[in-house]
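Supplementary Methods S3. Complex input for the pyridoxal-5'-phosphate-bound model.
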Amino acid sequence: MHSDHIIDMEAVRFAIDRLHQSRAPRDKPVTLQPEVALPAQFPDTGVGEQAALEALSDLALGQSAQLHHPGYFAHMDPPTATVTWLASLWQAATNQNVLHPDVGPAARELADVLIEWVKPFFSMSGGHLVPGATVANLTALWAARDLRGVRQVITSNRAHLSIRKAAHILGLKFVEIESASNHGLVLPADLDLTDAAVVLTAGTVTTGAVDNLTQAAGAAWVHVDAAWGGPLRFSERFADVLDGVESADSVGFSAHKWCFQPKGTAVVLFKDDKAAHEALSYGGGYLSAPNIGLLGSGPATALPFLASLLAWGRAGLAERVEHGMAQASQLVELVEDDARFELWGRPTTGVFVWRPRNVDLVALRVRMNQGWVAIVDVDGEAWLRCVPANLSADVRALFAQTTAALEQT
Ligand SMILES: Cc1ncc(COP(=O)(O)O)c(C=O)c1O
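Predicted complex, serialized as structure tokens:
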């Protein structure tokens, strides 16, 4: 066997040890443009495996944003659990290809199991894994165009930019409707939807708002972009936030957001998966099974996803999502009890928009040692945005850091 394929347990221990050491929360934020001490050009001679890992470990582990840091509450990017990244290691090491049954027999089965597990929560009949909600949205609108003759995509001006991208790629007219003040889409009653795919959002990227998901019954196709909010369906307490999703023609959600998966994991589901998959299928001389959807070769992202779901069960995933909702409620209480702060609105999907009154937020954030929040533009004004994707985030500490930074002004 070639030495590349013999597992070097010393290198494995080294890599895991370094990862383990890098987990301790840092007391200083990382710089946004770390120095990269690597050859400027592709070196002729390699340094060997262990030396390569050593050369990269400080940068890759020491200079990565600590998504599990108690102060981290800024974006839709979760830290991953041990079971998840270990299964990802198996995925990378076995490098299966879901395109071919003979290069990914188990991987294909796992993907099917995964879809079986998640589809009932959205009342869909099937679907497939995609690398992100961007691709889920494109794939759903592709099916809409080819199955129902859709000519235009109608959505709110709060929809994610991937909807505009998809309409452009598919050659469909893109119609954006100004949302209501709560950022929900309200379709005008006289709008002709007979050749339209209406895209409703369950968790807008800026404020986490959810559109009324039952308002587009007359449309040729209804797609729900539940990139962020989708996993609320796994919680008995919060499933109703997405009431109406069951009547959509398609739904997409990103597992690499609120299902705590590594990047590249998302799902697109269809009400009629047979028709959709037929419309999205290409066969070809060298393929022993039809190639469904946008990707050719595809990774076995079902493996870490299933490993996580198997480890946690539905209740465990729900508990994690509910933890995020509780973090948001805790922040609401703190903000409402302090007259120096204001809320943009009550969070519906845990995404939380707030700010101290009359303060330069950029300067404030610089003074917030180890408190990560995003600054977003909402209707021309700057607000702080928090996203509860980090189960280790300490809301009280974050609020204390914000008030401390405020007191320094
Ligand atoms: C509402 C919404 N749709 C789509 C996307 C794109 O998702 P992805 O980054 O998984 O492609 C996002 C990302 O934040 C989102 O918030």
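The domain at 85-310 is CATH 3.40.640.10 (Aspartate Aminotransferase; domain 2). The pocket of pyridoxal-5'-phosphate is lined by residues 76, 132-134, 160, 162, 201, 203-205, 225, 227-228, 254, 266 (CB under 6 Å).
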